[in-house]
TrEMBL record:
Its EC number is 2.7.1.71. The keyword Signal does not apply. This is Shikimate kinase. CDD domains: SK (cd00464). It comes from Chitinibacter bivalviorum. ATP binds at G17, A18, G19, K20, T21, T22, R123, Q159. Pathway: Metabolic intermediate biosynthesis; chorismate biosynthesis; chorismate from D-erythrose 4-phosphate and phosphoenolpyruvate: step 5/7.
Length: 176
């Protein structure tokens, strides 16, 4: 259903592997909105890939760049923004997301997230001896924060990207 009319911004939140980047891009196309990904924006502004930023500036440096990107991107109109999984950690980011768009939490179990991320070396927080345990820890800390900002929670564990997109479009048509 490309060109569907749904007003405003959609912001995607959730853990690494939830599908924010993949589903966000497809949603933007279907809803005729411009797609942004805060990680891509940070990489473009910095001129370095995410693992390099973590290596040189640590997570603290990355979070600072992320906060700047979220503050700017949430001021745009008619966009879909895929955030990074840790974007909800800063209260200021949560306020920007809540204030400026409709927030969708893509939810999945740590086991499912592990299956989707285990072959990808570009997530510094998962380059540990036990990434499954790390995902479970992050889930425990962040799930309440995702729920705090979310207007809509979508369970993605049993859904392909395409069936998820169709479900999401139906929900968004109804609720926005
Ligand atoms: N609902 C889904 N079912 C199966 N695989 C998925 C689903 N959503 C995303 N994926 C896959 O998981 C991986 C991570 O997706 P990505 O969009 O990068 O997640 P995020 O941006 O939330 O970290 C990609 O390989 C993507 O194709
Ligand atoms: O969860 C996190 O803290 C992070 C998630 C990543 O984005 P995705 O959620 O798109 O993988 C990226 O921002 C960075 O590696 C940190
Ligand atoms: Mg992503």
């Amino acid at each position: 259903m490309p060109g569907m009319k749904m007003p405003g911004n959609f912001f995607l939140v959730g853990l690494m592997g939830a599908g924010k980047t993949t589903v966000g891009r497809a949603l933007a196309k279907a809803a005729s909105k411009t797609f942004y990904d805060s990680d891509h924006e940070i990489e473009a502004r910095t001129g370095a890939r995410i693992p390099t930023i973590f290596e040189l500036e640590g997570e603290v440096g990355f979070r600072q760049r992320e906060a700047e990107a979220i503050a700017d991107l949430t001021q745009l109109k008619n966009i879909v923004l895929a955030t990074g999984g840790g974007a909800v950690l800063h209260p200021a980011n949560r306020a920007h997301l809540r204030r400026n768009g409709y927030v969708i939490y893509l939810c999945a179990s740590p086991e499912e997230l592990y299956k989707r991320t285990c072959h990808d070396k570009n997530r510094p927080l998962l380059q540990t001896a036990d990434p499954k345990a790390r995902l479970a820890e992050l889930y425990a800390i962040r799930d309440p924060l995702y729920r705090e900002v979310a207007d809509l929670v979508m369970d993605t564990s049993q859904q392909s990207v395409n069936s998820l997109l169709q479900l999401l479009l139906k929900e968004l048509e109804r609720k926005t």
